[in-house]
Amino acid sequence: MPEIFVKLHIKALEGGGYLAISPVLPGLVAQGRTIAETIEISQDVARKLIESFEEHGDPLPPGIVMPDKEMDIEIAVGM
């Protein structure tokens, strides 16, 4: 399977840690101690959700991106 890009919204939680949801992939909710961990968990959840869509023959929700040869992304850099 090629890489698929899914938009995430990540917010810091009051008690510590981070929560990620996806505005384009219903059901994607992930929580981690760091942003990196939250993204890693989100990737696993997204993979399982997308596999479920494919297994059931359902089309992927709009907003999920199959990259072209070139693209711009933002990355997190710990300081």
Explain what you see.
- It is a single chain.
- The chain is built from one helix and three strands.
- The protein has a domain at 9-55.
- It is globular.
- A three-stranded antiparallel beta sheet has the order 1-2-3, covered by helices on one side.
- The protein is α+β, with helices and mostly antiparallel strands.
Q: What string, H for helix and E for strand, traces the elements in order?
A: EEEH
Number of helices: 1
From the helix content, strand content and strand pairing, which structural class follows?
alpha+beta
Helix content: 25-40%
Rg over C-alpha atoms, rounded to the nearest angstrom: 13 Å
**Which residues sit in consecutive blocks of at least 5 with pLDDT less than 50?**
none
For the largest sheet, list the strands in their spatial order. 1-2-3
The best one-word shape is globular
Measure the end-to-end span.
33 Å
How many E strands? 3
Largest sheet descriptor: 3 strands, antiparallel
Overall average residue pLDDT: 90
**What is the strand content?**
15-25%
Which helices and strands, and how do they pair?
Layout: E1 9-12, E2 18-21, E3 29-32, H1 35-55
Antiparallel strand pairs: 1-2, 2-3
Brief descriptors of the model:
79 residues; alpha+beta; three-stranded antiparallel sheet; 1 helix
